[in-house]
Each structure stands twice: as structure tokens, then as C-alpha cells.
């Protein structure tokens, strides 16, 4: 039996004393693609932030590769990354943004890895390496932000409405690049999106949330 990459047990989250998420059990297997569907306010972003180890739940257990752990534990956090709908870039060049995580981890061959990540998201390294953050379109910002995450080869890639408000070309490239993480090195993906056609096309499982509760699973 395959050990889940992440398991959540009896997760409860509250904001201002109000329950916003109630998940009794959720397993994410290595290499799985899970879609999160539901209206705004249904709990998708709250669940992603818990999975990303950005927020600790009010109650419940976070299990990583079979071992219960504190959600903000650094050794776990380094294997998980979240791409939000409106990502923040450092006020630096494209190269510096994509290389940042590699540098703080003391990785080698950084220039080659940065170029590979840029190519994965459809950005020509020669044209974009030296470009500054303020010279990018909205779609290019999203693609640079995704490249900065893919270059780290996370075990779990989380995406919160990654193609909302993007032009179709950028949306297609974001989708293709995200799937490359699973295809090339076996990452698991959890994608929150209103694009049901995309979720149905790529996801092994679609979880439908409403009022912070899992209503059904396809």
C-alpha cells in the first residue's frame, strides 16, 4: 500500500470564532492530481493554506509521509509550495526571483536550473533573465512565480485559481507547466479552480467544497 504524501485528520479551522473548514479525512498520494471546486468562500483557499503549512489548523492532525508533524516544521515546508492567484515577486530581476529559493538552499548549477524552469513556463531565458519585475505583464508574473516554485521540485504543488484573469496563452502555459511537475518528477498537485473543464481533464479526484465542508468527491 502506498503511503500518502500528506494526510489530514479531523481538521477544523475557525476565523473570528466561526467555523470555516471541517475536513474529517483527506489523503494526497504521491503523484496524485486533486481538484478543489466550490463557490467563493467555500473553504478552498483555507484548505490550501493549511496544506501549504502557512496556517496551522485550530484542531486536527497533519501527517507527512506517515509521520505526524507540526504544520510549520521547516523540513516539511521545504517540500510544499503554494502558487496564489496574485503572486508576489521580489523587486529584482526575473533571474533573481527564480534563483532565490535555490540560493537559500545552497543548491548547485543555479543558472542552468533557472533557465530550465523558465523554459518550462514558456519564457525564453535569453529574453527574460535580466528583465525586472515591473517590466512583466500579469501573465508573465504568474509564469515567473510558477517557475520559482517548479525550480525547487516540490513534492506537493498547490495552486489557488492559477489561471484566473489570465490571457488564454498564459493560462495554457501555466496548465502545461503545472502538469510537468507531476510528469517529470512525480509531484502531487492540488488545484483550486473554477475552470471545471480543466479540472475534469487532469484531476484524478475532484473535491467539491461548500461552507467549509466536503459535499462530494468525483
From TrEMBL:
SUPFAM superfamilies listed in its UniProt record: P-loop containing nucleoside triphosphate hydrolases
Protein name per UniProt: ABC transporter ATP-binding protein
PANTHER family xref list: ABC TRANSPORTER I FAMILY MEMBER 17
Domain ABC transporter: 6-217
Keyword tags: ATP-binding, Nucleotide-binding, Transport
InterPro entries for the chain: AAA+_ATPase, ABC_transporter-like_ATP-bd, ABC_transpr_CbiO/EcfA_su, P-loop_NTPase
One Pfam family hit: ABC_tran
Molecular function, one GO term: ATP binding
Amino acid at each position: 500500500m502506498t503511503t500518502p504524501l500528506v494526510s489530514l485528520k479531523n481538521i477544523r479551522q475557525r476565523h473570528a470564532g466561526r467555523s470555516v473548514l471541517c475536513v474529517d479525512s483527506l489523503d494526497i498520494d504521491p503523484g496524485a492530481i486533486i481538484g478543489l471546486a466550490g463557490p467563493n468562500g467555500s473553504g478552498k483557499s483555507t484548505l490550501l493554506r493549511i496544506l501549504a503549512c502557512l496556517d496551522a489548523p485550530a484542531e486536527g492532525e497533519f501527517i507527512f509521509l506517515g509521520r505526524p508533524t507540526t504544520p510549520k516544521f521547516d523540513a516539511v515546508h521545504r517540500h510544499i509550495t503554494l502558487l496564489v492567484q496574485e503572486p508576489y515577486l521580489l523587486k529584482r530581476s526575473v533571474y533573481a526571483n527564480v534563483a532565490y529559493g535555490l540560493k537559500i538552499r545552497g543548491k548547485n548549477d543555479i543558472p542552468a536550473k533557472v533557465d530550465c524552469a523558465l523554459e518550462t513556463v514558456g519564457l525564453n531565458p535569453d529574453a527574460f533573465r535580466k528583465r525586472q519585475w515591473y517590466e512583466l505583464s500579469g501573465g508573465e508574473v504568474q509564469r515567473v512565480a510558477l517557475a520559482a516554485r517548479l525550480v525547487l521540485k516540490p513534492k506537493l504543488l498547490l495552486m489557488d485559481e492559477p489561471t484566473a484573469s489570465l490571457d488564454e496563452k498564459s493560462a495554457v502555459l501555466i496548465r502545461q507547466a503545472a502538469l510537468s511537475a507531476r510528469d517529470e518528477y512525480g509531484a502531487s498537485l492540488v488545484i483550486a479552480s473554477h475552470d471545471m473543464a480543466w479540472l475534469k481533464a487532469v484531476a484524478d479526484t475532484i473535491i467539491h467544497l461548500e461552507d467549509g465542508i466536503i459535499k462530494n468527491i468525483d
